[in-house]
Design goal:
single chain, alpha/beta, Arc Repressor Mutant, subunit A, Glutaredoxin, 5-stranded mixed β-sheet, 5 strands, about 10% strand, binds FE2/S2 (inorganic) cluster
Amino acid sequence: MSVRRLAQTQPPSFAFTAETLETAKWWMSKYPPHRKASAVIPILWLIQKQEGWVSEPAIRTVATMLEMPVIRVLEVATFYTMFHLQPVGKHHLQVCGTTPCMLRGAEDLKAVCKKRIGEKFDVTADGLFSWEEVECLGACVNAPVVAIHDYYHEDLDVGALERTIDALASGQHVRPGSAIGRQTSAPEGEAKTLTDPTLYDGTLAQPIKLPNLPEPAAS
Ligand code: FES
């Protein structure tokens, strides 16, 4: 588990935009009043969408809003690496460094980030990029994985990550998912199971009559 601390430099205050506040209230309305703390993760996420990161004043604001001790909100914000605790670049790369990704080339990806962006959490002079190493992103079968914005970029190698950074730098859309065209989490190369085409052509989906169903009522 990486050590995650709040940024040393904090803004004096935090304020919701009207739009973010409206969405936050929608999340709160999903839960009974005495369970409003259940909205803590989506509201922190909304704040990050608004500000780019989660500041200490924002954490206090959420604690007040959800009637939670500040330490409880702090625990959530510092536990999940999805929350940025300091300002990051417009494109923040989260490189998984846990064992399956490490065995599949994460060290090389970290070297690319160092070369192209700088040290962890450095923000490039143009404000476009920053990166950090995170623990398992839960997509190990498609390792190595880098999360950018809300999406995973999987099966990466040095060339694929360099191309992704180039595309982002020039303002292009980058397609998330497998860099080697793997279908979801199928084995590399091609599917090894469930390959019978009759599984998918509808021939097996014939209606069946269950023996214990009542006869249809006479009309
Ligand atoms: S180890 Fe990288 S996604 Fe699980």
